[in-house]
């Protein structure tokens, strides 16, 4: 009996990140072909950094750390959104 090997689901590369009101040029986009599990793992790592930067930014009164966490959270969301698109196809 032969078992078919199913290739892993991958990102589709359709998720783009725009920052600021009325922006038409994306700052970044997710590349197609990244295994979805890897994209999810990396998004989780980024969210850990977001948590740490947010706490440090508040406790040390450093708004630049809060802005960094804001951008990293957007990147993590883009990874998760594109992985979800890849899983659903």
Question: What is the strand tally?
Answer: 2
Evaluate the radius of gyration.
16 Å
Question: How large is the share of residues in beta strands?
Answer: under 5%
Shape: elongated
Looking across the biggest beta sheet, what order are the strands in? Answer: 1-2
End-to-end CA span: 27 Å
Number of helices: 2
Task: Label the structural class.
Answer: mainly alpha
The biggest beta sheet, please?
2 strands, antiparallel
Helix and strand run: EEHH
Low-confidence stretches: none
Estimate the helix proportion, in percent: 55-70%
Chain-averaged pLDDT:
93
TL;DR?
With 89 residues, the protein is mostly helical.
Write a structural description.
The protein has a domain at 31-87. Helices cover 55% and strands 4% of the residues. The protein has helices at 36-59, 63-87, and strands at residues 16-17, 28-29. Helix 1 (36-59) packs antiparallel against helix 2.
Which features would summarize this protein structure in a list?
89 residues; mainly alpha; two-stranded antiparallel ribbon; 2 strands; elongated
Question: Which helices and strands, and how do they pair?
Answer:
Elements: E1 16-17, E2 28-29, H1 36-59, H2 63-87
Antiparallel strand pairs: 1-2
Helix pairs in contact: 1-2
């Amino acid at each position: 009996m032969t078992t078919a090997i199913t290739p892993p689901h991958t990102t589709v590369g359709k998720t783009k990140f725009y920052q600021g009101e009325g922006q038409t040029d994306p700052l970044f986009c997710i590349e197609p072909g990244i295994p979805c599990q890897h994209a999810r793992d990396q998004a989780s790592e980024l969210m850990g950094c977001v948590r740490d930067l947010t706490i440090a930014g508040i406790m040390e009164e450093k708004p630049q750390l809060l802005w960094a966490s804001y951008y990293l959270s957007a990147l993590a969301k883009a990874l998760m959104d594109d992985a979800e698109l890849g899983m659903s196809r």
